[in-house]
Design goal:
The chain is of the alpha/beta class. Helices cover 48% and strands 23% of the residues. The protein has a single domain, classed as HUPs (Rossmann fold, 3-Layer(aba) Sandwich). It has a 5-stranded parallel sheet, sandwiched between helices. Strand 1, helix 1 and strand 2 form a beta-alpha-beta unit. It is globular, with a radius of gyration of 15 Å. The model has no long low-confidence stretch (mean pLDDT 85).
C-alpha cells in the first residue's frame, strides 16, 4: 500500500467541498504529508462570452473566488499544522484535476451528490476524475445542512 504524502484537494470554494477539505487535511496530518489546494478557473464559464470587457470581469471574479477558495484550505492547514500549497489553473475542472493527478499520491475531493436528471445533464466532475485519474481518488460527499 502506498503512502499518501502528496495530497491534492480540489476546491470550488463552496460549502460542498468543506468536508473533503477537512478529510484531505487530516489525511495529510496523519501521514506527515502536505496538501495542494487546487482551484480550476472553468474556461467554459467565460469562453461563451463575446464582449472582451465582460470576459475580463468574469475572469477577474473567478480568479478572486479561486484565491478565496484556496486561501480557506491554506488557513485550515495552518490551524492544524499542515503545509498547504495554493494552485490556480485554467481549464475544464475534471480534465485539469485528472492531469494534475500524476503528481500526487491521492486526490481528496467533494461531490454535490447530484442524482437523476441533474447528473445526466451536468455530469459529475468527481465521476470523471475517478475514471481518468492516475492516482487513488477519495470522494467525500457533503452532508446537507439541516
Amino acid at each position: 500500500m502506498s503512502e499518501f504524502k502528496r495530497i491534492l484537494i480540489p476546491t470550488d470554494g463552496s460549502e460542498f467541498t468543506k468536508a473533503a477539505i477537512e478529510n484531505g487535511l487530516l489525511l495529510a496530518k496523519l501521514s506527515g504529508g502536505k496538501a495542494t489546494a487546487l482551484y480550476v478557473l472553468d474556461q467554459s464559464i467565460y469562453s461563451r462570452s463575446h464582449v472582451d470587457s465582460a470576459v475580463a470581469n468574469i475572469y477577474d471574479t473567478l480568479e478572486r473566488e479561486g484565491r478565496f477558495a484556496t486561501g480557506y484550505v491554506l488557513d485550515r492547514g495552518k490551524e492544524i499544522g499542515v503545509e498547504v500549497e495554493e494552485k490556480i489553473v485554467e481549464g475544464a475542472p475534471a480534465r485539469v484535476i485528472a492531469q494534475e493527478s500524476q503528481g500526487y499520491d491521492v486526490i481528496v475531493m467533494g461531490t454535490l451528490g447530484r442524482t437523476g436528471m441533474s447528473k445526466l445533464l451536468m455530469g459529475s466532475v468527481a465521476e470523471k476524475v475517478i475514471k481518468e485519474s492516475m492516482c487513488p481518488v477519495m470522494v467525500v460527499r457533503s452532508v446537507p445542512s439541516k
